Amino acid sequence: MSTDVAGTHLAADLSTCEREPIHIPGAIQPHGVLLVLREPSLTICQASENTEALLGIPVHSLLGRSLESLLPESQARSIRASLLSDRLEDNNPLKLAIQDDGSTRLFDGIAHRHQGRLFLELEPSTQQDALPFFGFYHQARGAMSRLRDARDLRALCEEAAREVRRLTGFDRVIIYRFDADWNGQVLAEDRVETADPYMGLHFPASDIPRQARELYLLNLLRIIPAVHYVPARILSLPDEAAQGPLDMSFCVLRSVSPVHLEYLRNMGAGCSMSISLIKEGRLWGLISCTHMSGAKYLPYEVRTACEFVGQFMSSFLATKEGYENYDQRIRAKSIQGRLLERMTRGLDFAAELCRSPPELLELTGASGAAVYFNGRTTILGKAPSDEQLQGLFRWLAGRPESQDVFSTSCLLKHYPESEDFKDVAAGLIAASMSRGRHHYVLWFRPEVVQTVEWGGNPHKPVDVQGEEPRLHPRKSFALWQETVRGKSLPWKDYELEAAQDLRRSIIDIVLERSEELLKLNTELERSNVELDSFAYAASHDLKEPLRGIHNYASLVLREDAEALKPSNRTRMDTVVRLTQRMESLINSLLHYAQVGRMELSLRETDLNEVLTSVLESLKPRIEEARAEVRIPAPLPSARCDRVRMMEAFTNLITNAIKYNDKELRWVEIGFREEPELGTVYFVRDNGIGIKPEYHDTIFRIFKRLHGRDKYGGGTGTGLTIVKRLIERHNGRMWLESFPGEGSTFFFTLGSEKAVGLP
């Protein structure tokens, strides 16, 4: 027994196995003959060197000859038609009678095309005619019925193992399923009593390297009748040899890796056969057959029946696996429906996902979750710290592979920094909400110490012996237990599907709300244009009658004041004063409308020069108020309209001096850099402050928080105009203030930094 930390052990170097070109071995297993033919002449241009032993004809006598010259006249025409057919493999197996020195030898011919070459593999046969369809159907019918009626995945695997062993007579047949890391687990076994049990054991991914798994997707059945064979080399005509190695990916007779043969011998197997199990285009597992009693040859028809069992079983894998977790899938759909209802009703979908009850955790069986959206992280349950989460977000955003949903039960293997928080997040599901902006929903599972039972030591898959390094597979397949750390419980398929479904729902909601916002923004822009036009026209047209009222009232006071009663003279003074105030309001409204209509002259501007000009113009007022102006550091340049920025700074600094009742007044102009917003400018004072409930109100036009003449009076449009100027620069404006503690007005300029990672 061993204890190991997942992903940290030093396994032997298997790079040699990974790089071994097993598809171009240059040799075959010698129980058959390989011929490579030129079309349409059917000239033999390559052949295995064992032709004399099986065909009775030396290989050098075969090269350059036509295949038809080896066949009786009664057969030559039909074989030629079959080999030149567009649907070549539908004719397999071909029944060939090879003639030599008066004797006739029967063969099963298995033909295919690959990379412009015509391959014909010949295996000795005892039957002159192909097995009738109804004979094959009789063998397969019972198996089909039993596989179809299997109640669940385990029953399906057990029935398939029994059926393949019944068809073949192998000593042991196991069903082997791959996990996410390509380690395999035995789910079912049918064996003779003398064979060692493998049920429940795990086998490391190194047993079947990557390139071997790729070939299992191409060849659904692979047989090695005798593990002690001596390979038969492929010989070629000179012009064929110049074209490079022969790609034998689809050849039944293709010779296998010497390491794999040694692996089988160490297992005690004399013969081996594997049948691929495919689910949704991916290698799901294998039906692995071994014979401990020596070599064993299976005719083509039996192998075809076994391959059919494998394909028929593959067609049920998704359904039977679905039955395993049917109740959980239904429950996940119900939870997803409730989460969707929450998100559509609330304005903040991230907050809705994370509020109680914690159904976001129940959806995937997680112990913690985090929703990262628009620069804000919302936590539910047990999760890494804020700093650790920010590092995890950056790692996810920087991963070269773009996956909508990334999942692992061993985050440590992918992200070593997770060692610090594996107690809460050894396993991770990360659902990405967008490609460019890096919004995520994360689910976490803690580390769970597990004991895994392997078929032999998985961390010593090879031994290197002698001065010349040579790979040797492990010699023992006995039960070997390992305590694994750094891993969480694995994520189930239905849990990953639930994460995928929730991701799609969130994207749909975000898109729907984006469309609604776009529509509202379009309507708002049109309304603003109409309002600007109305305000400009109204204020312009109101000035003329207002001016008339003011002039006539002033004329009466100037020429007929003596004739008026005191009360009437007071009324006329009020009319004059009100017309002056109304003209001031109309001028402010006209200016506000002009701010919305005018074209900005945007260019790179030194804001320090702008500030110097503003302070020079305000110098008398600053000196009169005996105020101190503080500029801790030079302001960075910005792309803006110089004149409008002078107006904005003038308004803000004037207000800072004006609304201040302290004996020692000061105004500070500065900036700070923020991850989400970029450069943020501010004007801060130690004045009277503003109650939080009025922080929005003060930006409304004509809105004053004090009496008309208090703090020097005014129209109440200054801050409204400044805010509009900032917004015309695609910026934002807000404040922080409390009564008696002063105020700080913040603003940004230019297009805001895209919301993303800090």
TrEMBL record:
GO-annotated molecular function: phosphorelay response regulator activity; phosphorelay sensor kinase activity; photoreceptor activity; protein kinase activator activity
Catalysed reactions, semicolon-separated: ATP + protein L-histidine = ADP + protein N-phospho-L-histidine
Ranges that cross the membrane: none
Gene Ontology biological process terms, A to Z: detection of visible light; osmosensory signaling via phosphorelay pathway; regulation of DNA-templated transcription
Domain Phytochrome chromophore attachment site stretches: 152-311
Residues annotated as domain Histidine kinase: 537-753
Alphabetized UniProt keyword annotations: Chromophore, Kinase, Phosphoprotein, Photoreceptor protein, Receptor, Sensory transduction, Transferase
SUPFAM superfamilies named among the record's database cross-references: ATPase domain of HSP90 chaperone/DNA topoisomerase II/histidine kinase, GAF domain-like, Homodimeric domain of signal transducing histidine kinase, PYP-like sensor domain (PAS domain)
Cross-referenced Pfam families: GAF, HATPase_c, HisKA, PAS_2, PHY
The EC number(s) this enzyme carries: 2.7.13.3
Origin: domain of life: Bacteria
Keyword Disulfide bond: no
This protein's record includes keyword rRNA processing: no
Family: In the N-terminal section; belongs to the phytochrome family.
Record-given protein name: histidine kinase
Species per Swiss-Prot/TrEMBL record: Melittangium boletus DSM 14713
